[in-house]
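Support request from a user on the community tier.

User writes: "When I paste my structure tokens into the form, the page sometimes reloads and wipes my input. The last time it worked, I copied everything first. Here is what I submitted, just in case something in the input itself triggers the reload:"
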């Protein structure tokens, strides 16, 4: 398709974009129905305590299995859901499902398991939504600190005052806030003074540079030192190898997450992982 369009194209850019936009629109139409057609599910990736004493946890990661397109990567459909506003509905489903699974994981393991949920900036638009989330936890009989809300610094690009207010409401109730993909992007450090942040998640690219680069180790070590002085915990993301696991441990990270500890699991596998851990 693209070869023949490119060969005859004038003007090429508009012609090349049209099918791509059509495909995006079709994907969005399909996504609108995905939840009630049972195509969405959550995978649970273990977050391993490096101190041995902290509560184990999982990050809930959204998966979309489409009957024709197969597994669609979150990087493809989450931006679509965000731009269209559909993330409000999907995010609500994610939060309720993850909280319900957290309850089951606690019941079957007898441990104070925590679940982290990724939250898009749009979801932090209203106090009413925050109150609804707290109600979901209450209805399940879960303490608020069973939930970690993972945000990226993107949240501060939209109405920083309002967002900080919503996060404070959650944090005051006991919900934990983690800053995801930390150490890349703009990493606006002043933001750490404005937001109630309990944990920093070291971006995968930083973790993966630790073995080869002394500079990466210095940066990561400084982040851990700063976080601890601010009474925040540090989760190393994207740990794939033994050496990376050893270095993150030496640097004082509190938790490790990555294929070395465990791939994203089905809910049933997550229960087994807890029994074995
Ligand atoms: P994230 O929140 O930073 O999640 C971590 C991503 O890294 C996940 O990709 C996970 O599968 C992947 N990962 C974990 N360990 C390793 C490793 O050792 N090596 C490598 N190469 N990758 C690893 P995934 O599941 O494709 O999710 C991508 C992003 O999509 C997430 O990044 C998050 O930003 C977003 N996302 C996923 N689920 C949701 C959701 O329910 N809501 C929202 N708003 N965003 C979501
Ligand atoms: Mg995350
Ligand atoms: Mg991340």
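"...and here is what came back when it finally went through:"
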């Amino acid at each position: 398709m693209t070869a023949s369009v490119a060969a005859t194209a004038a003007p090429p850019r508009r012609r090349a974009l049209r099918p791509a936009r059509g495909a995006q629109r079709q994907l969005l139409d399909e996504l609108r129905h995905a939840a009630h057609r049972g195509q969405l599910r959550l995978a649970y990736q273990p977050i391993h305590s490096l101190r041995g004493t902290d509560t184990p946890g999982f990050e809930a990661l959204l998966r979309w299995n489409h009957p024709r397109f197969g597994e669609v990567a979150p990087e493809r459909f989450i931006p679509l859901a965000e731009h269209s506003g559909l993330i409000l509905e999907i995010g609500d489903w994610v939060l309720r499902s993850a909280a319900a699974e957290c309850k089951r994981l606690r019941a079957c393991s007898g441990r104070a398991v925590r679940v982290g949920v990724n939250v898009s900036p749009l979801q932090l638009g209203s106090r009413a939504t925050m109150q609804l989330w707290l109600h979901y936890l209450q209805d399940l009989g879960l303490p608020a600190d069973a939930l970690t809300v993972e945000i990226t610094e993107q949240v501060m690009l939209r109405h920083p005052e309002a967002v900080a207010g919503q996060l404070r409401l959650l944090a005051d109730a006991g919900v934990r806030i983690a800053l995801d993909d930390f150490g890349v992007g703009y990493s606006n450090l002043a933001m750490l003074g404005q937001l109630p942040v309990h944990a920093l998640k070291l971006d995968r690219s930083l973790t993966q540079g630790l073995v080869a680069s002394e500079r990466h180790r210095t940066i990561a070590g400084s982040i851990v030192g700063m976080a601890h002085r601010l009474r925040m915990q540090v989760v190393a993301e994207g740990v794939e190898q033994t050496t990376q696991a050893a270095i993150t441990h030496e640097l004082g990270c509190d938790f490790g997450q990555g294929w070395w500890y465990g791939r994203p699991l089905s809910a049933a596998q997550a229960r087994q992982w807890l029994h074995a851990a």
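Agent notes: The reload is a front-end session timeout and is unrelated to the input. Confidence is low (pLDDT under 50) at residues 1-12. The beta strands are 40-49, 57-66, 70-72, 114-118, 147-151, 176-182, 199-202, 233-236, 255-256. Escalated to web team.
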